C-alpha cells in the first residue's frame, strides 16, 4: 500500500469539515483562524526546490572580529562559470540558530548559477557568523558594528546589497538604516516584533531598550523603500509584521503569499530575491 501524504490524511480525517471551512471562507484571511486552518491542512503553497545546476564556488575562511570579540567564519559564494574575483558583493544574513554556512546548506550556490543562466547579472554572496541576538549588540558582542565596519574591510569593498531571512531579515533592515547607500535590501520572513512582549519571548535581546533602539518597525522612515523587497508567507507567524513593514516602508517589490516560516517557502522565493538584487547590481 502506498504511503498516505500528510495533506490527504488530514483532509480525510476532517471530512466534510474541510468543505465547510472552505465554504465559509475560514481558509482565507477574511476571518480569524484562516492561517491556522491552512497550516493544519497543509495548504501553504508549493515547496521550492534547489535548482539542478552546478553549484558555484564556495570558500570559507576564519577571521577575528573585534566587534564580536571572537573568531567568525566568512563564506563566499558565487555562480559557476563566472570569474568571481571582481563580482559585486551582496551580504547574506542567516536565520537564528544558523551561521555563515547556513545559506550554502540551503543551496544558494546552485541558485546563483541558475539566476545567471536565467539572465540575472552575476554577483557574489558573502555570509558571516552573526550569533543569535538579531544582529544587534548584546553585551560586548556587536554584530551590527561587524557588518558596518569590519566586513567591508575584510572584503576590500562595500557590499552593494544585503539579503536576510528570518532573524537575518531583522539584521538586514537594521543595517539598511545606517547604510542608506545600499542598492538592494531583500528580506524573506523577516522576524519583526510589534511590541516588547512579543520580542521578549524570543530571548534574543538583552533589554527592552536594546530592542526598542533596533526594531525596524519603529524606524520605517529610515528605511529606503525604493531599494527594499519583502517576501513573507501568509501562514508565517511574522506575516502581520511583514504587512506592517510593507504598508509603512512602501517597498519597490513585495509578496505576501501562501507559505510558512520554513525552508520550503524560502527555497520558493529565493529566485525572486536574487532577481531583485541582480536588477540593482
TrEMBL record:
Keywords: Acyltransferase, Hydrolase, Transferase. It holds the Pfam family Esterase. PANTHER family: DIACYLGLYCEROL ACYLTRANSFERASE_MYCOLYLTRANSFERASE AG85A (PTHR48098:SF1), ENTEROCHELIN ESTERASE-RELATED (PTHR48098). Its EC number is 2.3.1.122, 2.3.1.20. This is Acyl-CoA:diacylglycerol acyltransferase. It is an enzyme of class 2 (transferase). Transmembrane segments: none annotated. It catalyses: 2 alpha,alpha'-trehalose 6-mycolate = alpha,alpha'-trehalose 6,6'-bismycolate + alpha,alpha-trehalose; an acyl-CoA + a 1,2-diacyl-sn-glycerol = a triacyl-sn-glycerol + CoA. It comes from Herbihabitans rhizosphaerae. Signal peptide: none annotated. GO terms for molecular function: diacylglycerol O-acyltransferase activity; hydrolase activity; trehalose O-mycolyltransferase activity. It comes from the Bacteria. Belongs to the mycobacterial A85 antigen family. InterPro entries: AB_hydrolase_fold, Esterase-like, Mycobacterial_A85_antigen, TAT_signal.
Amino acid at each position: 500500500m502506498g504511503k498516505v501524504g500528510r495533506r490527504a490524511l488530514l483532509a480525510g480525517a476532517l471530512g466534510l469539515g474541510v468543505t465547510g471551512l472552505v465554504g465559509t471562507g475560514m481558509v482565507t484571511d477574511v476571518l480569524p483562524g484562516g492561517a491556522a486552518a491552512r497550516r493544519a491542512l497543509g495548504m501553504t503553497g508549493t515547496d521550492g526546490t534547489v535548482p539542478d545546476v552546478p553549484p558555484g564556488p564556495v570558500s570559507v575562511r576564519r577571521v577575528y572580529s573585534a566587534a564580536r570579540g571572537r573568531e567568525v567564519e566568512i563564506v563566499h559564494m558565487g555562480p559557476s562559470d563566472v570569474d568571481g574575483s571582481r563580482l559585486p558583493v551582496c551580504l547574506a544574513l542567516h536565520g537564528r540558530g544558523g551561521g555563515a554556512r547556513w545559506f550554502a546548506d540551503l543551496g544558494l550556490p546552485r541558485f546563483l548559477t541558475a539566476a545567471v543562466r536565467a539572465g540575472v547579472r552575476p554577483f557574489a554572496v558573502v555570509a558571516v557568523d552573526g550569533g543569535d541576538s538579531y544582529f544587534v549588540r548584546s553585551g560586548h558582542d556587536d554584530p551590527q558594528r561587524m557588518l558596518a565596519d569590519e566586513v567591508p574591510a575584510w572584503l576590500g569593498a562595500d557590499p552593494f546589497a544585503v539579503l536576510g531571512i528570518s532573524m537575518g531579515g531583522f539584521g538586514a533592515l537594521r543595517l539598511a538604516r545606517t547604510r542608506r547607500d545600499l542598492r538592494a535590501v531583500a528580506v524573506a520572513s523577516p522576524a519583526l516584533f510589534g511590541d516588547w512582549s512579543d520580542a521578549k519571548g524570543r530571548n534574543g535581546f538583552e533589554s527592552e531598550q536594546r530592542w526598542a533602539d533596533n526594531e525596524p518597525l519603529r524606524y520605517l522612515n529610515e528605511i529606503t523603500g525604493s531599494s527594499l523587497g519583502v517576501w513573507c508567507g501568509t501562514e508565517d507567524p511574522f506575516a502581520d509584521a511583514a504587512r506592517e513593514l510593507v504598508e509603512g516602508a512602501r517597498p519597490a517589490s513585495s509578496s505576501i503569499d501562501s507559505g510558512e516560516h520554513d525552508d520550503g517557502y524560502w527555497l520558493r522565493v529565493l529566485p525572486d530575491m536574487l532577481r531583485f538584487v541582480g536588477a540593482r547590481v
